[in-house]
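Hey everyone, long-time lurker, first post.

I ran two proteins through the pipeline my lab uses and got sequence/structure pairs for each. Pasting them in order. The first:
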Amino acid sequence: MRTIQVKDFDDWRSKARKLIGNQVPPSEVQLFDDDGQRSLFGDSPDLDEASLATFRVSKEFLSLAQSVGYHRDFNRWNLLYRALWRIKNEQPYLLEIETDVDVHRLIQMEKQVRRDAHKMKAFVRFRKVERDDKEYFIAWHQPDHRIVRRVAPFFSRRFKGMNWAILTPDETVTWDQRELRFGPGVTRSDAPGFDELEDLWRTYYANIFNPARVKVKMMKSEMPVRYWKNLPEADIIDDLLTDAPKRVEDMIQQHEGFEQTAANFIKQTEIESCTLATLKEMAAECTACDLCRESTQTVFGTGPVEAKVVLLGEQPGDQEDIKGTPFVGPAGKVLDQAIRSAGLNRSELYLTNVVKHFKHVKTNNEDVPNGTKRLHQKPNAREVRCCRPWFDAEWSCLNDAEFLVCLGETAAKAILGPGNKVSAVRGRILATDYCEKTIVTWHPAAILRSPFEGQRQEKMRELIKDLGLAGR
């Protein structure tokens, strides 16, 4: 049995190539973290450099392996090598088999690392320290995984003009406005205590705290209690929760956050005799939320009034915003394919979205004509609430509708209520306030965004199957 110590992902990658080149199967090697000490099992003989493997693996695997390398699981290097061996010698498309035990574990580890990195970005709190008439900012954080080197470049970009250090039990990182330096881990007692920045954090958190959207269980999930001791704003959470009911009542009385909705643009005197065509004219004038300012036009639903199946998506995309018709962009092409495969005819369906304007951000991109690209942004709960009266009015005109198909999570939550995830409710016929036969399935855009081909194919099969329920 060979025993090999590994320092980091790059070191693992180099040694894994040598192992593959020397035809060393996973069962004959043990890979350990290099902690600077000699292995208890002794040093294995050097591998033959002449047998260095020259082979390629996908970018997906390299990206996955690099992320998993930050995981705390001591067995991660062995798991990665076993997957690499199988890809090289047995199953080239192993990553597409998501039910495979090794692949499933690697995907879960990658998600855990990604989530932990997100937590570090969100919960690091710098405290000011003055030394030799200079300001330094020091933070203490306890990540679940060894992610300091993964997240450090983010902080160097975000706080480029500060001298700062982040201390963790595993590793420290410092930034002197020029380069990142890494050192050994430290204890909590090495981090500074209270300073005036604490009061700023409390004031900021109190101002952004929305009592109408308090979900304590979800809050503890997104901001775990174990982080609270390092967050100055945590001191006031109990008081804010206690005061929440009264603040909600005050908000309602003052109409805070409840300005106009689409209902203000629906002419109630005409609603009983209203048609889809007249509704579309009314919607073209809607300015209930700010999305209308950056969008080209309102994208209303299309399809025959006698449609028996209604497909409800999230919002129009870039192409839909330009052409004024739902589902004509890349996601629309995927949906068209699924509709045909399910035995349905698009011309007989009514297609619409919960939100009628395209929410996006603009980024510089030299590959597009005007130099900017519009990237989709998910609409928030208020924007959905503002726009939903348009769908209510559409539905009231569709007297023959027998099936309502919610494409994606935004549509599902708008119809079923919050807390309903596609993965939990898809593929079943549900009774809702809108329709006795409501189905939740994947949005075609979710299929396009899936990172692995096998994942895309599986979601496509499920989308076709769910549409087939309505087709039958």
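...and the second, right after it:
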Amino acid sequence: MNEFSFQTIKMASVAEFNDKGSRFFAFAFPINSTEDFKKNLHQLKTEHPKAVHHCFAYRIGNDKNNFRSSDDGEPSGTAGKPILNQIDSKNLTNILVVVVRYFGGILLGVPGLINAYKTATVLALNKVEIVAKSIEKEILLECDYTQLGEVMNIAKANSINIVSKKIELFCEIIISIPIEKMEIIFAKFNHIKGLKLEIKI
């Protein structure tokens, strides 16, 4: 990993840990936004309505400053934090881990809970491939309709991801490109007279 990339998981995974009758199902998801987090958590709550807890932690973004964890009714610090700690121990971002607990009738105590949520998370993360992904920036392109063909040809020739298109007499196109390629891509687009490029925040 370097300044141009980050580590995340390649695909979703699930693992189970059992302790004194309680069952802990850990679900790990690659995500890109808080909307992805909400969708996955809602789906799990729908699929596991009889579970007593749906504890989670996520971290999003290249700077890793967007994060959240929840004990969802467990004693403070026994679920969300252990989950987040395991995410951080592998230096991951753009990831959500939800641990769904079915109570087995025997209290585990604080150390037991911390161990259960930590272990379930470790098992789920150990089952999935960790990958490095390029950090990308979204760029807004504004051009005349007559220039659209040239813009799209450059995008296609350089395998540029098109995020959205608004095609009218005056077109707005949002593309996403790896930051290490920005200088090269900008140089290609700058040959189009009158084309406006703006880095989206």
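Reply from user beta_strand_b:
Welcome! Quick read of the second one: The chain has a mean pLDDT of 93. Residues 5-133 form a domain with the Ribosomal Protein S5; domain 2 fold (CATH 3.30.230.30).
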